Amino acid sequence: MTFSTDKPGVITLLGPTGVGKSYLAVLLAPSLEAEIISVDSMQIYRGMDIGTAKIDQAARQKVAHHIIDIIDPGQNYSAADFQEAARAAIGDVFKRKKIPFLVGGTGLYFEAAVFDMCFPPESADEDLRGRLEDWAAGDPDGLRRKLTEVDPEFAAGQDASNMRRVIRAMEVYESTGRTFSSYKDKDRRVCYPYAGAVIDMPRPLLYKSIEDRVDGMIEAGLVEEVAGLKQQGALSRTARQALGYKEILNHIEGRGTIEEAVAEIKKRSRRYAKRQITWFRHIPNLRWFEIREEDLYDATAITGMLREYFENEIKRLA
Questions:
Q1: Is 169 strand, coil or helix?
Q2: In the predicted model, is pLDDT for residue 4 greater than 70?
Q3: Looking at the predicted structure, is the pLDDT value of residue 16 above 90?
């Protein structure tokens, strides 16, 4: 099954953390003749395996995966970097007459791949970034108020609840004199025709899945993984923000017990899932599917529904 046009179309499977996207995508990809392009902002890092729930090597041998394990944890990586890599991967997959299958939970990365988005330049001023991070840590409300003054459009949007994005928006303003929101493409021109599905769960089931997954990561050796990465060298600013890694680093460096770190990972993961769901609801033309508890033990039904949806959509896009 391939697209008959000379312009790549893509399919996508998105969803919040802990919902089982990667597992379902591996089940779906062979019959769709698809290769998976990760849209996960942290699975790009080599060695960050347990905490990012990276798909294992056996599955990656079964189905080709792209944009996983491409840089070391000491390197920073931006949405603009991902946009370039994703478009190269889409073109490569399409040339081999396969379907580009974007899978993950980073909504911004999906949008960077399929929409004509322009990103502000990265700042090399570490002193500026450090000052803004200190401000955010000591007076987050004050930083948000200041950003509201200089970039009210950004402050009114969904990103204003994400302190990492708030810091980035203020960094852009102070380093370029332009607001972060001024880089936003108001027309959202589509570069690649796409068909997209979002998988979700009832909240109690999703939160239980998240908490069980965090417990499983600790049992699988997340603390040891983070300690090994720290021993190899400092994690980059972006890598250090990955769910689980920041909290375990704090524990290793003497700022809290392991119990406190685990509790914080679970809380931060639940909040992140909420933000992901909110983000996905603003992306047009996505079909939502709900995972039921029985699907966790037998994925036949949900996989069948997703396969039928994608097969029909691929025919529509061809």
A1: helix
A2: no
A3: yes
Tell me how far apart the alpha carbons of residues 189 and 7 are, in angstroms, rounded to a whole number.
Answer: 15
Q: Which helix (H) or strand (E) holds 155?
A: helix 152-155
Question: Across the strands, what pairs with 100?
Answer: 35
Q: Name every residue whose Cβ is closer than 8 Å to that of residue 134 and which is 6 or more positions away in sequence.
A: none
What six digits make up the tokens of 154? 């950004």
> What is d(CA 62, CA 65) in angstroms, rounded to the nearest whole number?
9
Residues flagged as binding site: 15-22
Report d(CA 183, CA 41) in Å as an integer: 20
Residues in binding site for substrate: 17-22
**Cα angle value 278/182/236 (rounded, 5°):** 65
- How many CB atoms lie under 10 A from the CB of residue 228? 11
Q: pLDDT tier at 160 (50, 70, 90 boundaries)?
A: confident
pLDDT band for 55, please (50, 70, 90 cuts): very high
Over range 102-127, report the average pLDDT. Answer: 87
More confident residue, 185 or 297: 297
CB 299, CB 240: distance < 8 Å: no
Q: Mind listing the pLDDT tens digit for each residue in 244-266?
A: 999 999 999 999 999 999 999 99
What SS3 state is found at 103?
Answer: strand
Q: Which residues are annotated as a binding site for ATP?
A: 15-22
Backbone angles phi, psi at 196, to 5 degrees: -130, 140
**pTM of structure:** 0.85
Q: What is residue 39's three-state secondary structure?
A: coil
CATH class given for the domain over 10-118+187-317: alpha beta
> What are the boundaries of each domain within the chain?
10-118+187-317, 126-183
In this structure, are residues 235 and 245 in contact, taking their beta carbons and an 8 Å threshold? yes
Torsion of CA 74, 79, 80, 84, to 10 degrees: 90
Query: Which architecture characterizes domain 126-183 according to CATH?
Result: Orthogonal Bundle (1.10)
